[in-house]
Design brief:
Distance between the termini: 34 Å
Number of helices: 4
Strand order of the largest sheet: 1-2
Helix content: over 70%
Number of strands: 2
Length: 137
């Protein structure tokens, strides 16, 4: 009697679990970036960009939008990449670094620029590991 082995690529989660984790991470990251922005505002850091104030809720909304884009990237990589986790982490770290460029060149004070960059890094520190854990290595 012979046994047939069917090699299959195993993943650490389903797409549904990946999406649930990503949505939860997006909510947590949005809350965290709003808290960072509010703390900065309370500490006297201007939230004005080119003379226009950024509402604290704006930090949360943009964090949620871009976090959900990250979830979509992860879902695509889970389906098509040979090493989804590795590819996701490399891609999102690069995108996080690129997201800092507009902050560096923004028409704002140094403290405002630093606060903006901090919010990007806080969001990335929450979302990237949460989603990466759900992807196959």
């Amino acid at each position: 009697m012979t046994a047939t082995v069917n090699p299959t690529r195993t993943t650490t989660s389903t797409v549904g679990a990946l999406i649930r984790t990503g949505v939860i991470a997006a909510v947590v990251a949005s809350t965290a970036t709003m808290a960072v922005a509010a703390a900065g505002d309370l500490a006297g850091v201007s939230l004005d960009l080119s003379g226009t104030p950024i509402p604290v809720s704006g930090f949360g909304v943009l964090t949620a939008v871009f976090s959900l884009i990250g979830v979509a990237i992860a879902a695509l990589l889970a389906r098509f990449a040979r090493r989804p986790r590795h590819t996701f982490v490399r891609t999102t770290v690069a995108l996080t670094v690129l997201s800092l460029v507009p902050d560096v060149v923004a028409d704002a004070g140094a403290a405002t620029k630093a606060l903006l960059m901090l919010t990007h890094l806080v969001a990335a520190a929450i979302v990237i590991p949460a989603i990466a854990r759900r992807l196959a290595a």
